[in-house]
């Protein structure tokens, strides 16, 4: 079933996701609630929608990080939610890659609720 993902969403960490669904293509911005340095940092996101399935990504160019989410929309207690899994990849300088590659990719999950 098609879902319009346009709107503002928040996750369990206090992150905010603002999306504009343009008939399958997504654009918007994301503010992480779990930044390492306590700064408020909005980054652009882009992605795709197929029915009630979604993917979007953000590139933190100043930090050498790309994050990609993939998930599915559902309704719980009358509230739209997006249950996602994410992968966080950090660019490593080549001399460090051999010893630290295991640390450069992290996996996790988020549940976004529509505001």
CATH superfamily (homologous) name = Avidin-like
> How much helix, percentage-wise, in residues?
under 10%
What amount of the residues lies in strands? over 45%
Segments where pLDDT lies below 50 for 5+ residues? Answer: none
Largest sheet: 8 strands, antiparallel, barrel
Query: Which outline best applies?
Result: elongated
Number of domains: 1
Mean pLDDT: 92
Main sheet: strand order: 1-2-3-4-5-6-7-8
CATH topology (level 3) name? Lipocalin
Number of helices: 1
Straight-line distance between termini = 21 Å
Radius of gyration: 15 Å
CATH architecture heading: Beta Barrel
Order of helices and strands: EEEEEEEHE
Q: What structural category arises from helix and sheet content?
A: mainly beta
What is the CATH class designation? Mainly Beta
Describe the structure.
The chain has one domain (7-114): Beta Barrel (Lipocalin), CATH 2.40.128. Helix content is 10%, strand content 61%. It is built from one helix and eight strands. An eight-stranded antiparallel β-barrel has the order 1-2-3-4-5-6-7-8. The mean pLDDT is 92.
Topology (SSEs and partners):
Blueprint: E1 7-11, E2 16-22, E3 25-31, E4 42-50, E5 53-60, E6 65-76, E7 79-90, H1 94-104, E8 105-114
Antiparallel strand pairs: 1-2, 1-8, 2-3, 3-4, 4-5, 5-6, 6-7, 7-8
Attribute tags:
115 residues; mainly beta; Lipocalin; eight-stranded antiparallel barrel
